[in-house]
Each structure stands twice: as C-alpha cells, then as structure tokens.
Structure to design on (552 residues):
C-alpha cells in the first residue's frame, strides 16, 4: 500500500524510443496528490509518450515509474481501475450514443455508476441518446471528461483536451478542470497552450527533445526564465546612473529613447529616480515577462 | 465479466446501425438467391455436371448461407475494426481499462450472429419463392453454418487488424469479396469454371464452406475434413489478428 504523503506519480529517468527515433530521453518528475500538473512542450517533444507510458499504454525502454503506488509495466490492470484518461487523437464510433458510451466505460468500475447523474453533471442530459458523430467539439470534450471520470478515478490524464476547440469550448473545458481540482482529483494535463497551463496548473514541467528542461510553478518559471521586466521611455538621463540602479541588468539607448531591463526591484528604483528628477515620461511602457517568454526561452532557442 | 457483456451489446448496436451491414449481410445474399433460383429453377441436374445433381435453387440456397458469412467476414467486420484502429477507439478503450479482447469478442460474436441471421434470411426467402429441396440434415446445416460464420469472423478480425484505414478495409474487402463470390462457389458452379478459376476458388475460404453446407443440405452429409479446414482458417485469422493488434 502507498505510504501517506507519497506522490501520486513518480517518474525517474524515463526513456522510450520508436525504432531509431528517440521519443523520450530522460524525463523525471513527481505529481503530488490533488495537484494539477501541466506538461508543456513543442510537438514531438515526448509529452504524449510520457503520459502513455504512465498509463501502461506503452512500454518504456528504461526508467522507474510509479503511479498511485503501482508499476504501470506490471500492474496495469489494477492501475487502470484507479485512473481516468482523455487520450490525444482518439475518438469514439460516430454511431455510438452518449448513454451507451457511458455504460460501456462504466462497466469496468466496481458497483453501478449513476449514468443519469453523471450526464446531468456534465451538461449532457439532453444529449443522452445523441450519436457521438453529431456532438459539437465542446460536447465531445465534456463526454470524454465524463468518461474519464465515470469510475471516480483518483488520478486523471488529460492529453491536449482543448486542441481544436473554439474559444468558448476551451473556456468550458477549463471550468471542468477547475471542478476536478475542487473534487480533489489529481490531474496531469498535457498541453501546448500557455494560457491554459498558467491558468489551470499548480506546477509545470517543460519538456524539450524528450527531456525535462525546467519545472516549477508558473510564477517560478516566469521569474527564472522570463527574462525580467523591460521598461522603455524617453528622457534625458545618464546611462551609467541607470546601470547602477539595484536590479538593473542592462541599459540600451537610441538617442533619448531608453530600454532598461531588470527585475521587479529595478522597476521601483527606476520610478524613484525618474520622479526624483522631476521627469515623468508620457511614453513609459513596462513589459512584464510572461509564461510565453519563459517558455520560448526554454524551448524556442533552436527553433527560431 | 461486465465489460465483456457490455462490449458485445454495444457492438451489436453499432454493427446493426451500419448501412453496409444491412446491404451486404442481410439483403444481398437473399436477393441473389432469389434471382439465381428464379433464373435456374430447381429442376435436378441429372448428369450432375453443373449443380452436383440437384436443381439450381437447391444448389444456391446453402451457397448463399455461406455468402452471408463471407460478406460479414470480408467487408463488414474489417471495415468496422480498421475504423476503430484508425480513429484511436481501441486506444481509448484500452486506456479506460476495458480489455481490447472484450471489444474483439463482442465484434466476433455479433459478426457470427449477423452471418447466421443473413443465412436464415436466405432460407426464409428461398423456401417460399424458388422452392429448393429442404435440408437433409438441419443440425448439420446449423453446425456447419456456425463454424463457417465463426471462421469468417476471425478472418475479418485479421483483415481489420492488418489494414490501416476503414476505407482501405472496405475497398480491399469488396474486391476480395467479389473474387471469392465469383470463383468460390456462390457464383458460377465449380463444374463450369475454367480450371484456373476453379483452382483459385479452391484456395478461397468460401469454397470449403459452400461445399460443406451443400454436403449436409443435399449431399453425402457431414464433411469433417472441410469443417477442419474452416477451423484452421479461423485459428489462422485469430493468430494474425492477435499478433497484429499486439503491435499497435
């Protein structure tokens, strides 16, 4: 049995190749109970392979994996009763009706699922007898999540669940994940949408070329890799004086136009200096680093 | 056992909702037997050099029971299964903890039942209209039809596991079905086929089923050798399907 406080997912040194193509070279991370962990990375970086190995859908070439205290390589049957899964690029037969899908997926659980309550819960009661092929993108995603949750799993894998959805359907999917968090379900969310990751995830793991290049909360990643704050303005100042301000990392100037980079403290000191000189530039612009800046710094260097 | 029963029930509804099922498994064999029985009548073939000594209607009725099984195994099941693989349905099912074996079991069960239903429709259409002789050995017909339906369902599983898309499976299936239909005993009788075509027909899985069914309907009786051949064909299909699906 699992000891109290043991993470729900522990991956260490995961490796997986398809023939001569190395999909995952070295992936390690942990997911705590009740946490929403995002796995970010460009296409082909090994995100999907990683979560498929964790679900026992692919056999890794090497590494240690523990999911809910079980080994996905040898205890896949027990594991699948405890997890829910929304897989990338997989569908249901067009003629399968919503209620039939729920009944089928519920058949592996212990006890009888309350199909009607589940459908009502996920806004699908009116679509009970609708064929899968007639559902909208948002309705399909709701059904997939309902199917992933039908047996009340403790851990859910959601792989690119909002890809291909319109903005309204994406927002709806986000609300659903927020509900999962409230229910205390542990979620592993694979995505390449940075706004989604920033909004939904407690922590992020950034994967590039099959290896983890950074991990932390969205704020930690932005602070560590976002490149700092950039202030631009026009004024008559001394470059050396600006460069000496605490927290400033660089000063650029073209004529009277300045670009000052630094951390949050640098911004305060710059403001103090400007006000002290009686200079209030009307064209002052401040660019705060975003998760996108951090992400591009981490994965984009060789791709641009 | 719940996933197995639920899968079989789901597969039944899905296959029944496919229009190709209705056309190829149920309608075509019944229409063909009606047309050919009407054309050739049921006057016994005295020399035995065309219709094995019976009339056309009696000759074709067991042949079209066999054709229903071939339609399900060569067209319907492969298209259905290849579509599942193409769209990632099997991955989703596997990810949900539903054994893929339960889905395949459901498909084979439903395909076998559909084949038998198609065969029953052939008999129900033929007897009141074209007047074939009734079967000498009803139990033999039922057992042979079940073995044949199961063998073709397993061949269908192998094709569905090997072909990459539903469209490829349907295209290849219809092509193979047509060749098998023409030379395997459900088209021109074996006795009138050129030697080369008859030889090709001998190597199709339809010929043993047509001959075994005719043997119990109007011929010498149970053909255990051909039942063995059909059993071997089915096992080979299951082995190919198992090998191929384990690599997905």
């Amino acid at each position: 049995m699992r000891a109290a406080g043991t993470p729900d997912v522990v991956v260490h040194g995961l490796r997986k190749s398809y023939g001569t193509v190395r999909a995952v070279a070295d992936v390690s991370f942990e997911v705590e109970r009740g946490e929403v962990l995002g796995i970010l990375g460009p296409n082909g970086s090994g995100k999907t392979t990683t979560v498929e190995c964790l679900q026992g859908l692919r056999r890794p070439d090497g590494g240690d994996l523990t999911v809910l205290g079980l080994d996905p390589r040898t205890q896949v049957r027990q594991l699948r009763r405890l997890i829910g899964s929304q897989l990338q690029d997989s569908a249901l037969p067009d003629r399968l009706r919503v209620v039939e899908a729920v009944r089928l997926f519920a058949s592996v659980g212990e006890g009888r699922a309350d199909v009607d309550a589940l459908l009502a819960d996920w806004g699908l009661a009116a679509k009970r007898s609708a064929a899968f092929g007639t559902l909208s993108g948002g309705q399909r995603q709701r059904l997939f999540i309902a199917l992933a949750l039908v047996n009340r799993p403790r851990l859910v894998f959601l792989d690119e669940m909002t890809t291909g959805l319109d903005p309204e359907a994406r927002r709806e999917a986000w609300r659903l994940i927020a509900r999962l968090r409230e229910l205390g379900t542990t979620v592993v969310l694979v995505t390449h949408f940075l706004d989604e990751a920033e909004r939904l995830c407690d922590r992020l793991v950034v994967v590039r070329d099959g290896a983890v290049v950074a991990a932390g909360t969205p704020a930690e990643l932005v602070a560590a890799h976002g490149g700092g704050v950039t202030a631009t303005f026009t004024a008559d100042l001394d470059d050396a004086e600006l460069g000496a301000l605490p927290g400033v990392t660089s000063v650029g100037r073209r004529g009277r136009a300045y670009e000052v980079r630094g951390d949050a403290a640098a911004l305060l000191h710059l403001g103090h200096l400007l006000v002290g000189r009686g200079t209030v530039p009307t064209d002052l612009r401040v660019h705060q680093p975003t998760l996108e800046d951090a992400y591009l710094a981490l994965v984009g260097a060789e791709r641009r | 056992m719940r996933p197995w029963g639920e899968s079989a029930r789901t597969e039944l509804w899905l296959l029944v909702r496919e229009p190709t099922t209705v056309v190829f498994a149920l309608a075509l064999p019944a229409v063909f037997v009606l047309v050919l029985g009407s054309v050739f009548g049921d006057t016994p073939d005295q020399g035995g050099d065309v219709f094995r000594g019976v009339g056309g209607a009696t000759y074709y009725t067991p042949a079209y029971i066999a054709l229903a099984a071939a339609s399900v195994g060569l067209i319907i099941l492969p298209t259905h299964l290849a579509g599942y693989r193409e769209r990632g349905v099997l991955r989703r099912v596997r990810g949900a903890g539903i054994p893929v074996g339960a889905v395949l079991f459901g498909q084979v069960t439903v395909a076998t039942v559909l084949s038998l239903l198609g065969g029953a429709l052939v008999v129900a259409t033929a007897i009141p209209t074209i007047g074939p002789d009734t079967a000498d050995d009803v139990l033999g017909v039922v057992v042979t039809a079940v073995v044949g339906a199961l063998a073709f369902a397993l061949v269908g599983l192998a094709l569905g596991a090997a072909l990459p898309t539903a469209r490829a499976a349907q295209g290849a299936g219809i092509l193979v079905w047509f060749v098998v239909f023409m030379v395997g005993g459900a088209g021109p009788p074996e006795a009138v086929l050129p030697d080369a075509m008859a030889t090709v027909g001998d190597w199709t899985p339809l010929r043993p089923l047509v001959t075994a069914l005719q043997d119990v309907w109007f011929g010498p009786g149970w053909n255990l050798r051909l039942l063995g051949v059909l059993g071997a064909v089915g096992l080979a299909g299951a082995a190919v399907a198992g090998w191929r699906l384990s690599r997905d």
Observations:
- Chain A has eleven helices and 13 strands.
- The domain at 228-288 of chain A is CATH 3.30.70.980 (Alpha-Beta Plaits).
- Chain A has a mean pLDDT of 88.
- Chain A has two domains: 9-223, 228-288.
